[in-house]
């Protein structure tokens, strides 16, 4: 069986530049076989009835990319694409899914964890969120726009040509407070280096906390956002039993609020680092590489959450220290 197809979710508020970026991706001569799903999908099923037998329209472009407009629910479309791939009708080795501007990327991401058969054939690589630099202030008053930022592995700033450098700087700081993990990159009318978009491995269990992750403290917020990040670090070893008890309880009580979380941890009596990461209530953990003999064994954990229960997280983490 061939290796799973990496999937990128492209999110961003209305008019943020998702289609512009995708057009660019579909036209460029990059030599990759990318399938793009443009998202007319709905769960209601109404579109499917109206459109009869053609819930998925697929077009292969000159550069080998595949453009796919779907009028059905995402799961069905993902299976249909696999059928056509397996029958040799189309060819692609990566997939990008455009979410509608008002969509929460979480259910789209969860599709790739929940469905066993889809999990064998697709692997979620990352969530990219476009942020319209010229309209971010208005967009970020909406909880859904903040959630799109909070879920992201990469934040892509569009329309920076319409604002000045100070505005971009202030916006970048605000976005960093919301999401401490995601690096921020500028996209000019859809133009951006492909390496910034693909093979991010945002959901892999590894010790990489994110390319943009910095432990630099961020300035105080002038606007209190609903979604925010909390970074905890310590050089004291953690007790694995207490830690897992705390995590279970936290997920039980606040799982729905925890958009993304990731930790690289120093566990008492263990020579390897423990890595864990999750999205909402779905999480996984694994042993990673050994700590080097001369390395400072520092545990770092980052939570991105809606109305983040900061005190509870701090107290639970503290109680798990030896
Ligand atoms: N000035 C400027 N305009 C941009 C840039 N990127 C996109 N646009 C414009 O912004 C408008 C919206 O872009 P789209 O790509 O349609 O945005 P979208 O996110 O797909 O929009 P929806 O699907 O409606 O949510 C278009 O008129 C684009 O030409 C940019 O970097 N600078």
From TrEMBL:
The family database entries (Pfam families) matched by this protein are listed as:
cobW, CobW_C
Name this protein carries in UniProt: GTPase
Q: Which domain of life is it from?
A: Bacteria
Sorted alphabetically, which keywords does the UniProt record give?
Chaperone, Hydrolase, Nucleotide-binding
CobW C-terminal domain boundaries: 227-321
PANTHER family annotated for this entry? COBW DOMAIN-CONTAINING PROTEIN, COBW-RELATED
Reaction catalysed by this enzyme: GTP + H2O = GDP + phosphate + H(+)
Q: What does this protein do?
A: Zinc chaperone that directly transfers zinc cofactor to target proteins, thereby activating them. Zinc is transferred from the CXCC motif in the GTPase domain to the zinc binding site in target proteins in a process requiring GTP hydrolysis.
Q: Please give the family membership noted in the entry.
A: Belongs to the SIMIBI class G3E GTPase family. ZNG1 subfamily.
Q: Which Gene3D superfamilies does the UniProt entry name for this protein?
A: CobW-like, C-terminal domain, P-loop containing nucleotide triphosphate hydrolases
């Amino acid at each position: 069986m061939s290796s799973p197809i990496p999937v990128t979710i492209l999110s961003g508020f209305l008019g943020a530049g998702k289609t512009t970026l995708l057009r660019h991706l579909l036209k460029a001569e990059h030599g990759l076989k990318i399938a793009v799903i443009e998202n007319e999908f709905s769960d209601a099923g109404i579109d499917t009835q109206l459109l009869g037998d053609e819930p998925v329209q697929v077009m292969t472009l000159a550069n080998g990319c595949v453009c796919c407009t779907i009028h059905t629910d995402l799961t069905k479309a993902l299976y249909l694409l696999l059928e056509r791939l397996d029958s040799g009708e189309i060819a692609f080795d990566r997939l990008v899914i455009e979410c509608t501007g008002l969509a929460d990327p979480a259910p789209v991401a969860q599709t790739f964890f929940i469905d066993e058969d889809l999990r064998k054939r697709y692997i979620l690589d990352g969530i990219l969120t476009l942020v319209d630099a010229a309209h971010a202030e208005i967009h970020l008053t909406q909880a859904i726009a903040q959630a799109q930022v909070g879920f992201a592995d990469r934040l892509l700033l569009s329309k920076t040509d319409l604002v000045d450098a100070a505005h971009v700087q202030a916006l970048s700081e605000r976005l960093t407070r919301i999401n401490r993990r995601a690096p921020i990159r500028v996209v000019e009318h859809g133009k951006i280096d492909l390496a910034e978009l693909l093979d991010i491995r945002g959901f892999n269990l590894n010790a990489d906390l994110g390319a943009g992750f910095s432990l630099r403290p961020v300035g105080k917020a002038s606007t209190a956002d609903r979604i925010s990040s909390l970074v905890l670090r310590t050089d004291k070893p953690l007790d694995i039993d207490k830690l897992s008890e705390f995590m279970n309880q936290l997920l039980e009580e606040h799982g729905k609020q925890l958009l993304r979380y990731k930790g690289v941890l120093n566990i008492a009596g263990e020579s390897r680092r423990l890595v864990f990461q999750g999205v909402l209530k779905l999480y996984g953990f694994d042993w990673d590489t050994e700590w080097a003999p001369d390395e400072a064994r520092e545990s770092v954990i980052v939570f991105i959450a809606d109305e983040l229960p900061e005190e509870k997280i701090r107290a639970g983490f503290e109680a798990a220290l030896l």
